[in-house]
Design brief:
By secondary structure, the chain is mostly beta strands. The protein has no helices and 5 strands. Helix content is 0%, strand content 73%.
């Protein structure tokens, strides 16, 4: 789900949240293989319209699978992303 609030005609901010299934591969000798777990992510971003059909976006997001993995990441995977969006 995504909620957007337009600051001006060309600039908007948005927040999003989602849930689904994440596949993880474990490399522990007693418990190796692929696991499917529930996961959710959330974050927010900035959308700047360059033209009517193209915008530049930047967002911060956080993915959190459950149960929490124990290999040094604390269970949450932060990501900063920048890219172009095409509006049809």
């Amino acid at each position: 789900m995504r909620c957007q609030f337009n600051l001006t005609n060309r600039v908007g901010i948005y927040a999003f949240a989602g849930a689904g299934v994440a596949a993880q591969q474990r490399f522990v000798s007693s418990d190796s293989g692929w696991r499917a777990n529930f996961a959710y992510d959330f974050g927010g971003g900035l959308d700047v319209r360059l033209t009517r059909l193209i915008s530049l976006r930047g967002e911060l997001r956080r993915l959190r699978p459950t149960p929490q993995p124990t290999f040094g990441y604390g269970g949450a995977y932060p990501a900063a992303q920048v890219g172009f969006a095409f509006h049809f």
